[in-house]
Amino acid sequence: MDSNGQSALIRIPLPLELAWGFGLVLTLSLAAGWITDPPALFFAFVFVLYGAVASCVFRYWPPARDFGWANRATLLRSSLVIILVALAPFANRIEGSLWLYGWVALLALILDGVDGKVARATGSQSEFGARFDMELDALFILGLCVAVLALDKAGIWVLALGLVRYAFVGAGRFQDWLNRPLPESFRRKTVCVWQIVTLLVAVLPPVNDLFASATLATALALLLWSFYLDIRWLYQRRDSHDVS
User: Count of CB atoms within 10 A of residue 108's CB?
Assistant: First the structure.
């Protein structure tokens, strides 16, 4: 038995795991292309995004371990997120399919909780799985920001909802204390879900610019407040080797 509680006899090689993920992304991209008729650049975005996801998995996942059902659930969700993000810059050209776009985004949001439940049920929690899920959330949020901007539902400031976290990660390259682990936070999870929900609602056809901008501005204020609390917590413990 391996560390995931699964027999080594049924371990699937990592390239095959990523191969079925690619097959799913390819199928979904062809379906999206047939339904929405996006420009050819959409398909280029799809392949670049999946290539980036696959490269990160290859780099950080230990090849001797079974990928596990929790990571498979995250990889499944990544296929939906990749399609949504690749379509985001062309949201103004697929207005007839925005309801479908919203439903797929909602499905991706619902699936966000599946991988964690599977990991706990199978005893296969890992630092990699948590980071995989978190980075996928960040990409999802940034993609929805781009879709809202493409639809002119809010100004360019809406991109801050997706870029603040990347700015925080970038700052960690210069201030090592920002890289220390943070404790579990219901507040942080709630703000993340609120970001996604407000962005998802904003792309729907009936939602006007004023309502979208107001709710997204609230989401941005909550996000900045949440980051402020986390940065202050880290700063107060910057000279401590134990942040638990």
Answer: 25
